[in-house]
Specification:
Blueprint lengths: L5 H13 L3 H12 L9 H11 L3 H14 L5 H11 L6 H14 L3 H17 L3 H14 L7 H14 L6 H21 L4 H14 L9 H11 L8 H17 L6 H15 L9 H29 L11
Length: 324
């Protein structure tokens, strides 16, 4: 029964929006914009809310720009809406982060802050901006009173980083992509040293980036994984064990640069001796491969050692040779 004013009109329009009557809410906003309430500050925000719900992100973004250009007291929810709308436009994810940080600064309710951090994580993960996503995940953990990022976000981050490695690119780009996946995997391992996924992610990332083992990127991650699995060999599948062993063996036989060739061969034999006990069935393909490969490598080592011994002894003196 109170006299109608701009505040009353706005609350009516806002009620219609919250009731899901977006077209009616827009009509009420139009009547305000075309009358005495045309300078009412929150009309543009009302338009933004309605058009966002109607799926017109372009109009929503336009009205948000108008609102923030004149508004003196935006509310946390206004910044959150702006973040969600801007995130729908590729290349505006950083702007969305700025708005979320403003919401965090204004809001004093911890539950809301946690939700804002979660929104930031989701936006950056979807945009494949994984470093920023990890920062939001860390912020959410801190706001929640947790000492570390939850395990599932780590799984999402490492999986996305591995998927982003594009071996069709140049070597510099591949290494940059790999380094991100490697750093996220190692952070996963550091926070969850008793979980298998971090170790697996690190190995998978290295193998994908170093498809032909030229760089030997997976040697160190596999060593860490093997050490982890020493306590529980049953947790590691025989297939994965064979594939890792095959990669490492190929590296020592073809690409290792930090050892003399004969030492690389000896390293390969040592590796096979460590792997063979996991494949005791002499009729299995794995056992046959490792056994036959070991024999061939050992034959090369024996030939080298024999030649070196003959060289060091000066060879055998021909019978009947005269002394000078």
């Amino acid at each position: 029964n109170s006299d109608k004013d701009c505040n009353t009109n706005y609350f009516q329009a806002d009620y219609l929006f919250r009731a899901g009557k977006y077209q009616e809410s827009l009509a009420k906003a139009d009547s305000m914009a075309n009358g005495e309430c045309k300078s009412y500050e929150r009309i543009n925000m009302l338009y933004a809310y309605d058009y966002d719900r109607l799926g017109d992100s372009v109009k929503a973004k336009s009205y948000l720009e108008q609102f923030f250009s004149v508004s003196k007291e935006p509310q946390p929810d206004d910044y959150v809406l702006a973040a969600k709308v801007y995130a729908k436009f590729p290349g505006f994810e950083d702007t969305a982060s700025v708005y979320l940080n403003k919401a965090l600064e204004l809001d004093t309710i911890k539950k809301n802050k946690i939700e804002y951090a979660s929104t930031g994580y989701t936006i950056m993960l979807k945009a494949n901006k994984l470093r920023q996503a990890a920062q939001w995940a860390k912020m959410k953990a801190t706001l929640s009173g947790e000492a570390k990022i939850a395990e599932y976000p780590y799984y999402q981050l490492t999986t996305a980083a591995i998927d982003a490695i594009d071996v069709s690119k140049d070597s510099v780009t591949i290494m940059q992509q790999y380094m991100l996946a490697d750093s996220l995997s190692k952070a996963y391992i550091a926070d969850y040293p008793d979980k298998t996924q971090g170790y697996n992610s690190d190995v998978i990332a290295a193998k994908k980036a170093d498809k032909d083992t030229t760089w030997g990127l997976a040697i160190e991650p596999m060593a860490a994984a093997n050490k982890f699995y020493e306590a529980d060999t049953a947790a590691r599948s025989k297939k994965l064990l064979f594939l890792d062993g095959y990669y490492e063996l190929l590296y020592y036989l073809r690409y290792a640069k930090d050892l003399p060739r004969i030492e690389e061969y000896k390293k390969a034999v040592q590796l096979i001796d460590e792997l063979l006990p996991f494949f005791p069935d002499t009729t299995s393909d794995e056992n046959k491969y490792f056994t036959q490969t070991r024999a061939a490598i050992q034959a090369s080592i024996d030939k080298y050692e024999k030649g070196r011994q003959q060289s060091s002894s000066g060879g055998t003196k021909p019978s009947g040779a005269k002394q000078k």
